[in-house]
Amino acid sequence: MSDKATLIYEGRTIELPVVRGTEGNPAIDISRLRAKTGLITYDPSLANTGLCRSEITFVDGEEGILRYRGIPIEQFTKRPDFVEVIWLLIFGHLPNKEELAEFSTLLTENELLHEGLRHQFQYIPVDAPPMAILSAALTSLAFFHQEFLAVEDIESVIQAAARLISKVRTIAAFACRRSLGLPFMFPDPKFRYCANLLHMMFSIPYKQYVVTPEIEDAINLLFILHADHEQNCSTSTVRTVGSAQANLFASCAAGVCALWGPLHGGANVEVIEMLNRIQAGGISPEQCIRDAKNKDKPFRLYGFGHRVYRHYDPRAKILKDACDRVFAQLHRKDPLLDIARKLEELALTDPYFIERKLFPNVDFYSGILLRAIGIPTNMFTVCFAIGRLPGWIAQWKEQHADPTAKILRPRQVYTGPAKVDYVPMSERA
Ligand code: SDX
Description:
This protein is mainly α. The protein is built from 17 helices and six strands. Strand 5 (65-68) and strand 6 form a beta hairpin. The radius of gyration is 23 Å and the shape is globular. The protein binds s-citryldethia Coenzyme A. S-citryldethia Coenzyme A binds next to helix 16.
């Protein structure tokens, strides 16, 4: 296989190096292209552009493969433990017993919010968008933990990561309780990571929520499946902000804002609202499919399609199976799951979706599983953010540790007016 690409332009031949990773697409290194030719490249949504080298996650969109530090995503489903995946993503290896115990203790020690941050919640409108609360609260962690604004060594990264990962649950739970008009439940150190979130969301004074093993496994699995996904929109946002040497809190808060978008993490809410509309009789599954194909309609089949997967998203497959398992364990059914299955059946046999290789993505079934756990719809994207936070931290840390990393500054193709002179007010129309 060649390690050079040849470009012929205006009679000149330029050779560019080809970079190869462990697997995946080889890349033409264009870092010297402009200096050599005066040319830049044009790739508006960066779908063909490698932002960085990374050792964290590998996705093969054509084959529907997702691996964290080389481990296929399917291998985390048997005994899902989100905290060990957090360690794997951030520190590059599965933790041994001591590492896992120490990190779990660190998360427990950092689960409370500073009282100054807790009191801020009383001024937040009860109908405030939870993703707005989450982004603001992550930024405000910089008020209360200024010692971590400049993380220079691995120990301070561990400490900053522990505060973010532990407190994101408390922030999410407090946002949920605020929207429900319920008193805040403080984190309880006797609970493991995911169980503590459910305790804070669902317990009431004098009546502790009982976390069943099935539900605890389901939420661990959900967070694992959302934990990282290469250079998706929110992760590349975190890298962009972090490339300016902005602190970890600010970088992750920016990631929350990107994830909020309905084309990205916000899709899990759109899917449930779409399924509810179908169930309420406002629209049939067949009409939904027709609308999704109709370019004159702003409607998309949320939970379908992907920038990278041209195959069934492996996470969607795992989530679909998890929905079946959890509903059977709970001896419950959800009509929305039946509707989702019908939509999938119609879409996967429809030429429009087949030709465009549109398959269910991670958001198609995640909302149904979150509903089964009892999470309110307005908290779905916040749950995506809780899952994705370790991935953002891992990617930020990888870039921060790279001595060759520079501030991200893409170029453009300018299409505005050529040079014109300033027109004084007296001479304007
Ligand atoms: C996530 O990048 C990641 O890794 C993201 C993520 C992660 O873990 O971080 O996986 C999480 O964000 C998953 C995606 C969640 N979003 C949705 O479910 C929203 C619905 N999906 C789409 O809006 C869409 O598929 C995107 C945004 C995901 C991708 O959009 P693109 O880049 O425009 O899709 P494309 O270029 O592959 O589209 C090709 C064609 C177009 O039609 P034509 O111009 O060829 O006629 O497919 C059409 C699109 O209009 N199309 C859809 C569609 N998705 C693409 N048509 C109807 N319904 C859809 N869902």
